[in-house]
Amino acid sequence: MTSESSRVEAFSDGVFAIAITLLILEIKVPEVGEHQGLWHALGAQWPSYAAYVVSFLVIGIMWVNHHQVFSYVARVDRTLMFLNLLVLMVVAAVPWPTAMLAEYLREGAASHVAAAVYSLVMVAMAFTFQALWWHLTRTGHLFDARVDVPAARATRVRFALGSLAYPLTVGLAFVSAPLTLAAHGLIALYYGFNQVPVPVRDDPATS
């Protein structure tokens, strides 16, 4: 990795680290009521734990995939830097809808709105990362010599199909907020274990 691409990744790592840390700060120490103990109060906060776990998975797996992509980037251009900033802008925003969904997960109509907002943020994350990948594979001139550019460009379709799951969760939000949160957890796991790898050349001389 060159110094210019390493600077972009180092800055990105900082944003990912801050965003993932802010998630736990949204879980407050419960107050014990007169007629309930601490165990009961802790259990009552299950929406906060569920939202935290799912969003941690989302940001964590996004960071892993971001690192994988940038490990093959030899140089950066202005467009790539701005697209990367868009990705980071959405990542930095994730703690906000996470806290809102945790707060309203059991609140009837409000839960649907909170889940829809959460899903819309995830839609934005998916499409900004997709835009970054499409720019990288458009000409391939930013990749290092290991990358099979035509094969990388061919992954665009599969990449786009995977992103279709996120808009569907916006509709699901108006059916069930808990189910929507679970769906995002499953999508995150899918991208964690079935992410499209960066294709590399077979010729060892180019590695």
Outline of the structure:
The chain has 207 residues and is an all-alpha fold.
Helix-strand blueprint:
Elements: H1 3-25, H2 38-44, H3 46-70, H4 78-93, H5 95-104, H6 109-139, H7 149-154, H8 156-163, H9 165-173, H10 177-193
Helix pairs in contact: 1-3, 1-4, 3-5, 3-10, 4-6, 5-6, 6-8, 6-9, 6-10, 9-10
N-C termini distance: 13 Å
Number of helical stretches of at least 4 residues = 10
| Oligomer category | single chain
Largest sheet: none
**Which percent range fits the helix content?**
over 70%
Share in β-strands: under 5%
Radius of gyration: 19 Å
The number of domains is 1
The H/E string reads HHHHHHHHHH
Mean pLDDT: 90
Low-confidence stretches: none
Q: What key attributes describe this structure?
A:
single chain; mainly alpha; 10 helices; 73% helix
